[in-house]
Amino acid sequence: GPQCMTAPIPDLAACQNKHLKIFNRHNKTRETITMKIPSSRQITGLIIVLAISFSTAFAADENAPENKPGYAKSKDVGAPAPANADVPFDGTMKSIKKNWEMWPKPDMKITWSIVDNPSGDGNTLMTNGGKRWGTHDLVTKKKYTDFEGHVEFIMMGGRDDGKAEGYANSGVYLQNRYELQIESPKGKDIKDPYNWKIGPHGIGAFCMERVPDQNAWRPNGQWQSFHFRFKAARWDGDKSIEPARATVWWNGLKIHDNVPIKHANGGVKVGPTAEGLKLQEHGQDVRYRNIWIMEK
Fold first, then answer.
1. To the nearest whole number, what is the mean pLDDT of the chain?
2. What's the pTM?
């Protein structure tokens, strides 16, 4: 090779456009190639870009819920349904028509869609049909009192814009009363969602009642999960003697620990009846999978 490559520390800049004689052992001939090596300035720039990328990735990784104290993998994305659990969605529209109905009008034709997983294999259930909340929700036909359950969701921003970025909103209603909010950040919180001080209308909150104990944020375009244990309110006739209680994990981190919940944020009013698990349509692109409920 040229002298620029024989020194203990090669002079890369001196190697620009050098013609190298190499021996091709396969056909026993010598060939000439041109070797293009980046300049010192280009290498320095590349190092800076890689350093910034590494720092950004490290910061995101540091804030990932799976790297925080108390993380429970068994409550996160991929948690398998127990053998005795109800699985109302198996990836097909047939399972939706069999196990779900529209809310608030059960006789309405189902408007939600079965679409591809945007970040892997399998089908997902996408919110669809409405432009505002409370008009095209989907609720299980089966009604539940005390239960443990699991729901996975992915926020994909505005509907049909082909981008995951942007505002998205939905919700998981326990007993079609108590809403676990799904929402991406807005305004100034977009810049630093990992330190987002989530309010009573933010993701993981029991909507308009109780904020999550910690932030387990994952970005739009990544799968997230709610895992919950729910005990219904107790009644003496039409008089409430004990409020409903719930323990909830968001992305494997416990955010509500056996907390009382009393506020029905849409759906059925607080009362003694058993009710279904409801998913909210809000007008954006939110998709669901791995939904299961196990009666207690």
1. 87
2. 0.81
| Block residue for tokens 């039409």 | 238
Q: How far is CA 231 from CA 13, 102, 134, in A?
A: 70, 25, 24
Q: What is the pLDDT of residues 252-261, one digit of tens each?
A: 999 999 999 9
Torsion angle, CA of 280/232/85/227, rounded to 10 degrees? 60
Instruction: Give the separation between CA 3 and CA 24, rounded to whole angstroms.
Output: 21
Q: For residue range 149-190, what is the model confidence (pLDDT) as tens digits?
A: 999 999 999 998 889 999 999 999 999 999 999 999 999 999
For 139, 161, 207, the CA distances from 132, given in Å and listed in that order, are 17, 18, 16
Q: Identify whether the C-beta of residue 175 lies closer than 8 Å to the C-beta of residue 274.
A: yes
Nearest CA to 226 out of 210, 209, 212, 208 is that of 212
Residue 2: exposure state from Cβ atoms within 10 A (0-12, 13-18, ≥19): middle
Bin 270: left if φ > 0, else alpha if -120 < ψ < 50, else beta: beta
Q: Which residue has the tokens 């809000």?
A: 282
Local structure of residue 75 (DSSP, 8 states): G
- Give the C-alpha separation, 76 to 71, whole Å: 9
Token pair 């970040």 in the structure block, residue: 119
| Single-letter residue type at 167 | Y
For residue 193, cis peptide bond before it (omega within 30 degrees of 0): no
Helix (H) / strand (E) containing 169: strand 169-174
